[in-house]
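Changelog note: in this version the structure field was regenerated for every chain. One regenerated record is shown below for reference.
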Amino acid sequence: MRALADASRIRELMRALGKAARQPTSVYLTGGATAVLTGWRGMTVDVDLRLEPDHELLRAIEELKQRLDINVELASPEDFVPVASDWRARSPFIERMGHVSFHHFDLHAQALSKVERGHDQDVADVNAMLERGLVNAASIWAYYDRVKGELFRYPALDRSALERAIERAFGLRP
């Protein structure tokens, strides 16, 4: 098992990815990486990210995981729940290093995917997002209304169960 990743280790990975990229690339951090860099959690087990385009840096990630002793997962909210078509524009910019622009994946999509998963750490993360004003009940319900028409693409998701989970996390629809 690799070491936990704190903000300095995540930034070290970001710098290394910036050096490795030979063409413009966007990296969207999600999950624990967002939590750590935003400051509501001190560490994460792995750095979840999405690469666009993904071909070039995939080879670099394998080497960087070993060299930096850090877990990296190719995962984003879109793997679990529908996301808004404008998720890229909604993804807060972090910084640019070399040819790589780093962003936090759309925070509403992250919150929705965490609510859907419902693990203790996910619930704590959603509460931290609420406390920091990164999301709120009205904006989450509005986001859900935008994406719920795409739930058919996720046959494992149960619409009623997801809506109950949103109610538990954010309260009844305003």
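Spot check on this record: The mean pLDDT is 96. The longest strand covers residues 46-52.
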